[in-house]
Design the sequence.
């Protein structure tokens, strides 16, 4: 995972992402990656059938001449 932290307390899933981080442009070059689980991930041993997939990104501002 890149810049994504997950925790489970009881039956509550909490996902934390540091929005000040950046990991470069997407393949299309239209967005900047901030965080990703890099696919679907199991959240805990207590909930083996539950998966989560997260992508956090922001649009690249177009340059004005």
Sequence:
């Amino acid at each position: 995972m890149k810049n994504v932290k997950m925790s489970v307390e009881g039956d509550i899933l909490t996902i934390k992402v540091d929005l000040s981080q950046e990991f470069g442009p997407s393949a299309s070059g239209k967005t900047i990656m901030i965080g990703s689980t890099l696919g679907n991930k199991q959240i805990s041993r207590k909930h083996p059938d539950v998966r989560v997939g997260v992508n956090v990104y922001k649009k690249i501002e177009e340059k004005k001449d």
About this structure: Strands lie at 4-9, 12-17, 31-36, 41-42, 51-52, 55-59. The first strand starts at residue 4 and ends at 9. The chain has one domain: 4-59. DSSP finds no helices and six strands in the chain.
